[in-house]
Amino acid sequence: MKFACWLLYVALFTSLDRGLANAAEPQYLHVSMRSAALSNFWGQPVSIDAHVLLPDSYYKDPQRHYPVMYWVQGFMGLGDIDTEDEATWQAAMRRLNSEFILVFLNGMFNWSHQEFADSANNGPWGTALVGEFIPQTETRFRAIGTPQTRFVGGHSSGGWSALWLQVTYPDVFGGEWSLSPDPVDFRNFSGPDLTKNPPQNFFNDEREHFYTLYGQPLRWFVVGAGWERHQFESFDAVFSPRGSDGKPEPLFDRKTGVINPTVAAYWEAHYDISRILQDRWSTLGPQLRGKLHIFVGDDD
User: Fold this and answer.
1) In which band, very low, low, confident or very high, does the pLDDT at 230 lie, cut at 50, 70 and 90?
2) I need a labelling partner for 294 at 20 to 30 A (CA). Which of 146, 166, 183, 288 fits?
3) Which residues contact 99 (CB under 8 A, 6 or more apart)?
4) pTM for this structure?
5) Separation of alpha carbons 80 and 53, rounded Å
6) At the top level of CATH, which class does the domain 2-184+274-295 belong to?
7) Domain-wise residue ranges, the chain
């Protein structure tokens, strides 16, 4: 299952730009929209970037309006789409006997992936997406513009983003599809239980057994030079309060693995999707019925 999800990800999103955007009637375009909310937060211009892939009939039927799928890219960011990728998506639409506009959203920012969640460190990315980018994009590209025809999906950090957006804005999207999302239940955050009081050590359990990732000690990835280290830094930026130095408060000490209980409590209260669903299910349940679709591999 995990291998299948990875193949899907590679096939659809690993690509190079072949110049489609230079065509007279391009079906693939790059868009960049200045966000007032994010620019005000940062005190400088900040934009939301995306690629837009239009369906076959877009220029042939100028009066037609379309559903939209927003796809949030994973941790490696927004790649370009080449001719082969475009053909793959168009073929998929034909097999489904359905046409829609596909918007690939870039989730990368200062501290890596910002998960399209409003945060104390990254700013109001969810608010900017829903309140600014989506209305402008759907007006520009002739979207139908209703919740029933607006969907969101993603892989890895993008998968977490998709689920978060659907849960946070249940009446904005008509459904979400998450492939191997980042942890959505903080009782198992790649091993440690962040909800325990007092919290566990991030590197090992109470019996001093190391938590592992890909069969190796978790701490190797946290302190190493690979992309995984930046992944954990991005979690701090999204989920943590801002420290007195203006930087995200780290969840745990990078040398000892000791978890800061105040930060852990903040994470759980604000971003633990499982807890949010449980605490607010009487309200969210009816709003989310039939809208949540999560696919996770056996080893994820």
Assistant:
1) confident
2) 146
3) 55, 56, 57, 66, 93
4) 0.87
5) 11
6) alpha beta
7) 2-184+274-295, 186-271
